[in-house]
Amino acid sequence: ATSSAGTNYSAIQSFTTAALPQGLILYSIPAQRGTALRFSVTDIKPDHYAVVLFNSNGQQVYRKDMIIQTNFINDAIVIPGSISPGVYQFQLENVNGYRKRMTIMIK
Hints:
single chain, mainly beta, Immunoglobulin-like, 4-stranded antiparallel beta sheet, 0% helix, 51% strand, elongated
């Protein structure tokens, strides 16, 4: 609160944030070109990861590399405007064999 005597803050005892859902979760489906596609995944090991988008012919059309130092990822990619609308595979992978894949629609 602010008064003529100045600003006074109360002590924060604690706060809790919502837990991330288990597994690979994608937000804003269908995805829109030029906008953010958020994703989260839990229970992973710190490592070098990549998000890869594959078109319906299996060709890689996008890649984002990440170095993750925690046991979760809560991030986003911007779907390039140059990608054609259609069905794609969203894949989260690392060089040690971790691989999670989901089918998405891009408008």
